[in-house]
Amino acid sequence: MSKKKMSLRELDLNNTGSWPREYKIGACILIGLLIFFLLWYVITREKGDELTNLESQESTLRSEFETKQGKAANLEPLKQQLAQMEQQLQQMLRQLPSKTEMPDLIVDISQTAIATGIQNDLFKPGEEVPREFYAEQPIALTFDDIPVHGDLPPGVTRERVMRDIVAALAAARAPAQGFVTGAFGQGDPDAAAATAVWRRSGLPAGNHGRNHLNLDTLDQAGFAEQLTGNEAAVAATNAGGRAPARWFRYPFLAEGGTPARRDAARAVLAAHGYRIAAVTLNFGDWTYAAPYARCMARHDMAGVATLERGWLAAVRADAVTARARMRALTGRDVPLVLLMHVGAFDARMLPRTLALYRELGFRFVPLGAAQADPFYASANDPRLPGPTPSLERLAAAKGLAPAAPPPAFDPQTVCA
Ligand SMILES: [Zn+2]
Fold first, then answer.
1. Half-sphere exposure (Cβ direction) of 67: Cα atoms closer than 13 Å
2. 249 Cα–ligand 1 center, Å
3. Span 160-184, mean pLDDT?
4. How far is the CA of 199 from the centre of ligand 1 (A)?
5. Is 306 helix (H, G, I), strand (E, B) or coil?
């Protein structure tokens, strides 16, 4: 009993063996618990740190997952956008002048400067400067003398010529304005078929005078008759039997021999609601029709190849010169209006011609879009004083010598 009543103070730590049994058991349990808690503390603290780490990792991974999931959802549209942008870039790069074109360009610019009376102290190309955007100059295509123009090679029909022209325009997605001379090919079923091809294409057709008479030889009444007498033929060449807009192109680009006659003709055009189609690009396409027919008749393909080279060189020289002159005269890029005809050689060369204009940095626009530029104000409104604006007339008005560089190539000498 005395052992049981022993107080904690009386316990001898140096002689635990003398402790009562209950105290020994109690001490053992206490030490056991202490060891257990120490172990538990050490182990769980480590695991706790690990848990905190893993929790923060989880939230990082989750936000990463959400970002990536968003990107994955947009991957297809983004890929398509990239492909589209690459395609556009390639297209733009194709429109830049190549290294081999640069010397030609410089020669053309120098010749134009000399022709327009501008003095060049030194023309030295600078270092290449990378830029973000490249502008394309608008150009409107016009085709005169529908449905019959110039000589045909053996075996070629007017209908075939028109089909080829319409197909080349469609392939290049190029709008074009036609001009009808109603008396040409009258009573000829082939000419009627050619007219039908233009009408079915949906391309617009304007008025080019009924008999293609030179206005310098006509009085006001005679001109009015040529204009209104052609309107039925013009209507028949337009889809739906009605021209979307009233455009007139002077035959031979003759506007009347005297200012009085010119103004009389303009009054007739104004009275009938016509706009005048100007010409600011003109490489003489009609001069190739006869030699081409001659070469084909005698199977002279070397002659045809000579004509092809001459044509493409003329297209290039004319475009480069006109663009440079327009910049020199107006200080900006005015949209240009190209004169062509529905001839057999025009049809043969049209795909390569359109590709060349694209390569030179032009894009094709409707005639109305090109002539929306203020440069063409007096062409759009015949009530304003004439004549129709052109590069030659603007140069003359500014007191500059007219640019008439001698043609480097005369197609009339081929297969002569
Ligand atoms: Zn004509």
1. 6
2. 8
3. 97
4. 19
5. helix
pTM more than 0.85: no
CA 366 to centroid of ligand 1, rounded, Å: 19
**Tokens found for residue 144:** 């005169």
List, in order of start, the domains of the chain with CATH numbers: 136-413 (3.20.20.370)
| Whether pLDDT at 2 is above 50 | no
Ligand 1 centroid vs 208 CA: distance in angstroms? 7
Closest CA to 133 of 172, 88, 100: 88
- For the chain, the average pLDDT equals 89
**Ligand 1 centre and the CA of 286: distance in Å?**
9
Is residue 130 very low, low, confident or very high in pLDDT (cuts 50, 70, 90)?
Answer: very low
In angstroms, what is the span from residue 285 Cα to ligand 1's centroid? Answer: 11
Give DSSP secondary structure letters for 117-178.
TPPPS----------S----EEEEEEEEEET--S---TT--HHHHHHHHHHHHHHTT--EEE
C-alpha 209, offset from chain centre: 32
- Between the CA of 101 and the centroid of ligand 1 the distance, in Å, is 33
